Amino acid sequence: MIHFLVENYPQSNKRCVWIDWAEQKAPKCVYKDNTGYTVIGDIQHNGNTYIANLRRKGLSKVFDQDVHEMMKVEVEMYNDYALRIHVRI
Q: Superkingdom of the source (predicted)?
């Protein structure tokens, strides 16, 4: 069973949704779908590497910390159990 509770953080005045997941390691406080990043353009693929340019959507600050507007993410897949994620801001 999943329970939802919307909580205000006084230091940021932004809302997250508290979810009681069955998985113990899952984050309890998550933001709604209008927060995060969107892929800009096509995802580049070369062998075992994927590269995407991302643009922020929604909040420009979280917990009074700036959220970068643009970033580049590079994912290298080494095998079924190992990958490398490199984020450039």
A: Eukaryota
Per-residue tokens: 29: 């406080």
β-bridge pairing 70-79 and 49-57? antiparallel
Dist CA 10 CA 1 (whole Å): 28
Residue type, 50: Y
Residue 13 C-beta-side C-alpha neighbours within 13 Å: 1
Q: What percent of the chain lies above the pLDDT cut of 90?
A: 39
Decide if 56 contacts 72 (C-beta within 8 A): no
Report the alpha-carbon distance of residue 54 to residue 39 in Å, rounded: 5
